[in-house]
Design brief:
- It is a single chain.
- 84% of the residues lie in helices and 0% in strands.
- The protein contains 3 helices and no strands.
Length: 82
């Protein structure tokens, strides 16, 4: 696997999936965006270069959106149960 496949394939998909799943369990909307930002920053300075910093912000926004969607789905399902 090349760095480009990891940076633009596996990393965003895994961030979205883990953000969705972890948010359903923890019920905190800002936990996974913060974690994904720190992971992206770590990857920026270890594997990639400083130009990946913009993508780190984009992936953090993806994480925030997927966390919000997960929390919204959870609230809707809880309303239907009660």
């Amino acid at each position: 696997m090349t760095d480009l496949e990891f940076a633009f394939g596996w990393l965003p998909v895994s961030i979205i999936i883990f953000s969705f799943i972890i948010t359903l369990f923890v019920q905190k909307i800002y936990l996974m965006p913060v974690v994904s930002f720190f992971i992206s920053i770590l990857l920026t300075f270890t594997i990639f270069n400083v130009s990946f910093l913009g993508w780190a912000v984009v992936y953090t926004l993806f994480s925030l959106i997927s966390s919000y969607i997960a929390l919204l789905i959870h609230k809707i399902l809880n309303k239907k149960k009660s």
